[in-house]
């Protein structure tokens, strides 16, 4: 069974000239059944395929977290890093890694796309079995809080994969149930809710785009999936198997059947075909972007930036090297609810600044760092993740 998410008004206006480095696809071979082919970067704006990162024929370097050693996996089982049946992929931009799960396995894999090194995260929380389609993990995305989330077909497991003290920890957040208003458009039924993919918003809620084209908003606090609508403008019998937010704030969808990519407007669920003729058999898409992300609403000044974005020691560095940036700047930090939690003044001399800022009293979580000029013009919005 092939992979059987929606809308919200977005403020994302920025574009990215290197979008092909921010979108990844889990692709399959040209067959009727699910057969893993590779992970690859793609340029969705131009319909161009990028580097093939890891294939079914690659020689994997797998390190077991539980055993703290390298392992050689049994390719005759469902439990290995190149399993034929895979339909769940996420891109963790904070750790520059691809995270994925075989459909019939509880194993979680974290791969560095540059070194091709893979960490095997064994867990006893996931309960996927080959004979139970309800249990198959087919939807995965990085949440705005920096954790990875995965949902099985029937919504009976909602996994959170977090990183603590350089170890991955898996928690089951519970069962996602249908909102009473869903009626015949059930999130938990094969025909209307199974498969597809997952995207996240800046409030750490999720949208499931099911294989049928139905879209559901998943409220994480309530563990409910509310039917929002059905994508319009797709060809008849188009199977929606991959979904990810692009730099414009729209969702790109792809099919396992080798069809074109489509861009879906989240305000009205209208789809339009994207340029190019990739026709890849896409089982899943992943990107670094989020719906309703204020951090993406402003294009930064060319030579003004903050780093690191994953903050382990409660310090960030602010660097300016731009003659157009003058005088006093104000740095503000907001939590994901929009609350102002910190302010600091900065002084730029001769267009130059290189200053360390202490993020006092900030607990672990996602924040937006905003830098404004003396006139109140926003020069930079950037998301950071504070970790323990």
TrEMBL record:
<keyword id="KW-0732">Signal</keyword>
<feature type="signal peptide">
    <location>
        <begin position="1"/>
        <end position="19"/>
    </location>
</feature>
<dbReference type="Pfam" id="PF18962">
    <property type="entry name" value="Por_Secre_tail"/>
</dbReference>
<protein>
    <recommendedName>
        <fullName>Secretion system C-terminal sorting domain-containing protein</fullName>
    </recommendedName>
</protein>
<feature type="domain" description="Secretion system C-terminal sorting">
    <location>
        <begin position="306"/>
        <end position="384"/>
    </location>
</feature>
<dbReference type="InterPro" id="IPR026444">
    <property type="entry name" value="Secre_tail"/>
</dbReference>
<dbReference type="InterPro" id="IPR051344">
    <property type="entry name" value="Vgb"/>
</dbReference>
């Amino acid at each position: 069974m092939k992979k059987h998410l929606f809308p919200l008004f977005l403020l994302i206006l920025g574009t990215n000239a290197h979008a092909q480095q921010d979108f990844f696809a889990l692709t399959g071979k040209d067959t009727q059944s699910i057969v893993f082919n590779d992970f690859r970067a793609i340029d969705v704006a131009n319909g161009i395929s990028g580097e093939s990162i890891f294939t079914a024929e690659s020689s994997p370097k797998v390190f077991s977290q539980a055993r703290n050693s390298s392992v050689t996996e049994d390719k005759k089982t469902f439990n290995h890093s190149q399993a034929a049946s895979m339909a769940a992929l996420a891109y963790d931009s904070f750790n520059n890694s691809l995270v994925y799960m075989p459909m019939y396995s509880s194993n979680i894999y974290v791969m560095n796309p540059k070194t091709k090194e893979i960490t095997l995260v064994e867990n006893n929380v996931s309960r996927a079995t080959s004979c139970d389609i309800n249990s198959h993990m087919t939807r995965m995305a990085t949440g705005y809080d920096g954790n990875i989330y995965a949902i099985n077909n029937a919504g009976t497991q909602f996994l959170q994969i977090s990183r603590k003290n350089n170890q991955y920890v898996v928690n089951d957040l519970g069962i996602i149930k249908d909102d009473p208003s869903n009626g015949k458009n059930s999130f938990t039924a094969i025909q209307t809710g199974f498969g597809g993919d997952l995207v996240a918003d800046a409030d750490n809620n999720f949208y499931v785009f099911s294989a049928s084209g139905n879209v559901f908003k998943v409220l994480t606090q309530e563990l409910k999936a509310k039917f929002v609508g059905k994508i319009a403008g797709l060809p008849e019998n188009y199977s929606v198997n991959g979904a990810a937010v692009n730099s414009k704030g729209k969702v790109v969808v792809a099919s396992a059947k080798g069809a074109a990519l489509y861009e879906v407007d989240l305000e009205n669920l209208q789809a339009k075909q994207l340029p190019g003729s990739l026709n890849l058999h896409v089982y899943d898409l992943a990107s670094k972007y989020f719906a309703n992300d204020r951090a993406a609403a402003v294009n930064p000044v060319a030579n003004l930036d903050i780093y690191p974005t994953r903050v382990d020691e409660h310090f960030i560095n602010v660097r300016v090297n731009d003659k157009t940036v003058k005088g006093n700047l104000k740095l503000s930090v907001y939590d994901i609810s929009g609350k102002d939690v910190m302010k600091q003044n900065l002084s730029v001399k001769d267009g130059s600044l290189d200053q360390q800022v202490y993020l006092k009293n900030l607990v672990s979580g996602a924040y937006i760092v905003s830098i404004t000029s003396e006139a109140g013009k926003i020069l930079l919005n950037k998301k950071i993740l504070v970790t323990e």
